[in-house]
From TrEMBL:
Coiled-coil zones: none
Superkingdom classification of source: Eukaryota
Source organism of the structure: Malassezia obtusa
Domain Enoyl reductase (ER) per the UniProt entry, residue ranges: 6-349
Protein name: alcohol dehydrogenase (NADP(+))
Cofactor(s) for this UniProt protein: Zn(2+)
Keywords recorded for this protein, A-Z: Metal-binding, NADP, Oxidoreductase, Phosphoprotein, Zinc
Length: 354
């Protein structure tokens, strides 16, 4: 029977207990995966600590940056076979019939009355079974949400790409970032360090924008051509009035970021896409947007096509995230360190329950 590290009380969100759990009932398009690695995401901390609200299920096994080996496939599975190395990200289900799902936007599923979006954990399948995540031994998911991992990427490097990487790759891809683009990345952390590396790999000129100056050396190594400390230079955005950004990716998980400054640093009709998810609300005057004709938006993970393209790019460009690998039993210590920002820049858990 599958086992995993679970949380049952948001007040004791580092108190993991190993539990047995059941996988969803198998379907003809399902793939069973024996998990070898799982990244830790800031979303895990927001969920198990109650920052995003009460738990939706009695016990939550977090983890949605999953790598493993296929052990079984349903009869309708076409492109993945037993023994393949695959990944599963932050979503394991959608209705597949609503307008977003039928237009390669399954990551924006709105449901069709029979099915709905299913997050990888802290979520419930349409049949009522509980979806559990990757701090565990096994997962079962439909082929649409299982991604082949290219040979050129190590498992521990691929894991954090499946949420952190895809979350920033999707807006880069959808905003046509390439040679000649100027991209600003706000926040050099788990998401931001991927944004710098992927934007660079796509051919953009990348500027790293961080609260403090202590990540400058790291950001330059990742591929940024310039670094800005908003703490040391509160009027930082003024230096970009005559060399504005086509796109700014805001990865900060705090609502206290200088959003007006970001908007003012955009070119006319430039875009600021927020992918960090603060627990409280952000505020911005419409007038700030109007003065640039700017667009403020967000983005939710990515679709399968984008995941496959991202992994291909990572293999071709030899992109390696900055990670620290721990045994899965160290998940309590790891999530606590993530909550304190004590990681450069992503934890990956290695299986120890088998």
């Amino acid at each position: 029977m599958p086992k995993g590290y679970a949380i049952s009380d948001t007040k004791n969100w580092t108190d993991f207990k190993v539990i047995d759990f059941d996988l969803k009932a198998p379907a003809d398009d399902d793939i069973d995966v024996s998990i070898t690695h799982c990244g830790i995401c800031g979303s895990d901390v927001h969920t198990i600590s109650g920052g995003w609200g009460p738990l939706k299920v009695p016990q939550v096994i977090p983890g949605h940056e999953i790598i493993g080996t296929v052990t079984q496939v349903g009869k309708n599975v076409k492109d993945i076979k037993v023994g393949d190395r695959v990944g599963v990200g932050a979503q394991v289900g959608s209705c597949m019939h609503c307008h977003p799902c039928t237009h390669d936007n399954e990551n924006y599923c709105i449901g069709d009355g029979k099915g709905h979006m299913v997050d990888t954990y802290n979520s419930i399948w349409p049949d009522g079974s509980i979806a559990q995540g990757g701090y565990s031994t096994n997962i079962r998911a439909p082929e649409q949400f299982v991604f082949p991992i290219p040979e050129g990427i190590k498992s521990e490097h691929a894991a954090p790409m499946l949420c952190a990487g895809l979350t920033v790759y999707s807006p880069l891809y959808r905003n046509n970032v390439g040679p000649g683009s100027r991209v600003g990345v706000v926040g050099i952390g788990g998401l931001g360090h991927f944004a710098v590396m992927f934007a660079k790999a796509l051919g953009a000129d990348v500027v790293a924008i961080s609260h403090s100056a202590n990540k400058k050396e790291d950001a330059i190594k990742m591929g940024a051509t310039e670094f800005v400390s908003t703490k040391e230079d509160p009027e930082w955005s003024k230096k970009f009035l005559n060399k504005p950004f086509d796109l700014i990716i805001n990865t900060a998980s705090s609502s206290a970021v200088d959003l007006p400054g970001m908007v003012s640093a955009l070119k006319t009709q430039g875009r600021c896409i927020c992918v960090g998810m603060p627990e409280d609300m952000i505020k911005l005057r419409v007038q700030d947007l109007a003065m640039r004709g700017a667009f403020l938006g967000s983005s939710h993970i990515g679709n399968k096509k984008e995941a496959v393209e991202m992994l291909k790019l990572a293999a071709e460009k030899n992109i390696e995230p900055w990670i620290e690998v721990l045994d899965m039993k160290e998940c309590s210590k790891a999530v606590e360190r993530v909550s304190k920002g004590d990681i450069r820049y992503r934890f990956v858990l290695k299986q120890d329950l088998n």
